[in-house]
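REQUEST ID: PR-0412
SUBMITTED BY: lab tech R.K.
PRIORITY: routine
TASK: structure prediction, single protein chain
INPUT:
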Amino acid sequence: MKTKKINIIHNNTEKSLNITSLLKEKLEHQGFCITDSFSYDAFLNICVGGDGAFLRAIHNFDFTNIPFIGINTGTLGFFQEVSPENLDLLIQKIKNQDYKIEPIFLVEGIICTRTSCIELIAINEIVIKGYHSKTIHLNVSIDNNYLEKFSGDGVIVSTPIGSTAYNFSCGGSLVYPTLDVLQLTPIAPINSKAYRSLTSSIIVPNSLLIQIKPEYRDENSILIVVDGQEHKYENIVEISFKISSMKANILTLGNHSFWTNVKDKFL
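STATUS: complete
OUTPUT:
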């Protein structure tokens, strides 16, 4: 039988390094090949760390089709399905092929400046914020239908899986991961005699495009944050969002539902 390759990706905390060493030993004992560097011939990526490490791994390896599963050595660990004390259970399920591979939706943002357009892909969310915490003014349209002029700290465009992250902290709704939608959530909207903004999130189906045009005075005052990574562009004239045609694959062991995960992590 051909030896199956597994990539182990980890951050450099002492706990992650210790768990990685133990995991590698256990997997090799069961006949798996653990690569010294990332291999696109592997059938599985195991990420040891917290949620940030998990997101970075998917980004760093260009949203590869190879499924990811996480071992939590961080704090919340919403993405990480396995705790360090359950390594043997993980290996047994992998060996017995007792798992599911679930695709998750990604959000695609197209940032157009006066000279070019840039594509950005996110797993959780893309955030439009004022640079140096400046209040920004954004004209928001849904599928070319003008909705509002938003004034405040910014807006979040989140995926269903990302609804549990920054979106949730800003009062957005939790969205079941299989729903083919995006969520637009305001960050500290201003409501006064001068400015009127929606104060709650809106759910937008896949068939509709979210379009945001900053006012002229704000073209150079915008910070784009993609899964926690900051990007700064000059002379932004429009930003549009849709669900990407790409997907990321997550390996699940079938012993935790989305709602169980929500209850365990937040309640």
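NOTES: Helices lie at 14-29, 51-60, 87-95, 166-169, 258-266.
REVIEWED BY: pending
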